[in-house]
Design brief:
alpha+beta; twelve-stranded mixed β-sheet; 28% helix
Length: 275
């Protein structure tokens, strides 16, 4: 894809109800300009998929969409195979929608855990505390954030994180404990409301402080979303404690093997599209 093609694929994602962020196209394309594929039929774009490469060993699949009128004709299978081929020899991850999970299993993917999207609304009378331990990441060395983030992701995504934090529409904060970064989170505007992602923290209390501080930035009456690994019980409890409601689930899947990640410190997934 060109960057313009990716804008089109993101519009398709919006039509599917995925509610992309307003700056997602720019940030995603920076991660791997060669990692986005589009299928054309007689010059018309009809299918998309992303196969974003991180370093030399990892890749993540997303944006797997075929326009509704062209589904069931084998075009999705063709672009799916092209994505797998482009990531050959790597560990590959994805967040699969429920309807496709059996197909991913047939392709060799293994289920690691479920991710659940929660939604809430910043109520007029709701409180959102701002912790004194939280700082804006604009005032903190980006290299230190990238180094902290490295524990939560298999491959090198330094360029993506650098860009993700730098967007003026994104509100990025960190939490310091004993003068070291012990968690961080990003709030970004979307087609509808806001999304929190990532939300990484060394303890549930730190995650609570980051969540509360991000929530305080959301205008009253606006919706917000948090994508939570179900295996992190503390993350699920955080969502429920703040009266968030589950919307839908995805399956985090990998092939050929499931990597070890500190899911007990992952309170919010960065994005379903890029992992």
């Amino acid at each position: 894809m060109s960057s313009g093609d990716l804008e089109k694929a993101i519009a398709w994602a919006a039509d599917e109800g995925w509610n992309p962020g307003l700056r997602d196209a720019h940030c995603f394309y920076v991660a791997d300009p060669d990692g986005f594929l589009m299928g054309f039929l007689d010059g018309e774009p009809i299918a998309s998929i992303s196969a974003v490469k991180y370093g030399a060993e990892f890749g993540f699949i997303g944006f797997y969409i075929v326009k509704p009128e062209f589904r069931g004709q084998g075009y999705g299978w063709q672009i799916w195979q092209a994505a797998l081929q482009s990531l050959k020899g790597r560990i590959i991850g994805l967040d699969g929608v429920v309807a496709q999970q059996s197909n991913y299993l047939k392709s060799g993917f293994k289920l690691a855990y479920r991710n659940i999207r929660y939604v809430g609304t910043r109520g007029q009378n709701s409180t959102a505390n701002v912790s004194s331990r939280v700082i804006p990441l604009a005032s903190y060395p980006v290299e230190a954030v990238i180094a902290y983030d490295r524990a939560f992701f298999i491959g090198d995504r330094a360029q993506f994180i650098h860009d993700w934090l730098a967007q003026p529409e994104h509100y990025a904060i960190g939490l310091l404990h004993q003068d070291k970064l012990a968690g961080y989170g990003v709030l970004r505007p979307c087609r509808q409301g806001y999304k929190i992602g990532p939300l990484f923290a060394d303890t549930p209390d730190f995650a609570e402080d980051i969540f509360q501080t991000l929530k305080a930035q959301i205008p009253t009456g606006d919706s917000f979303y948090l994508d939570v690994p179900e295996v992190n019980t503390a993350a699920v409890m955080l969502a429920r404690r703040h009266h968030l409601k589950s919307m839908f689930e995805t399956a985090r899947m990998y092939m050929p093997q499931i990597p070890e990640l500190p899911t007990e410190r992952i309170f919010g997934v960065t994005t379903f599209e890029l992992g």
